[in-house]
Specification:
iron-sulfur cluster binding, single chain, Phage_lambda_L, 125 residues, mainly beta, Phage minor tail protein, globular, 5-stranded antiparallel sheet
Length: 125
Amino acid sequence: MAIVIFFCNEANEKGEAVTWQGRKYDVYPIEGSGFEMNGKGAAARPSLKVSNLYGMVTGMVEDLQSLAGATVIRRKVYARFLDAVNFHSGNQEADPEQESVSRWVIEQCSELTSVSGDICPGNAD
């Protein structure tokens, strides 16, 4: 059974969930680092700190074997290309092709507290 969760750490200009390619991404506190890639040296080793608001991360860790083996997909999109529904006056520059997609497989949830869960994606998929 695949569980798919779509979230973004910011709201659109209307204060609502961001819509990208017709799909809503719920506003949820998350912080990522280490995504930089440079063609030389070791591959990027990103880490994610996800809010454990309402025990969401705790539930996922308990139900899904510490999240090991789950896939994280990061979609990087400039706001100016987001779907028109995100803006009070629409968006003539909306372009669903303007994204950069990265995929990682989670190795472990390295720290879990009542405040947050630190997730360590490993190798790129």
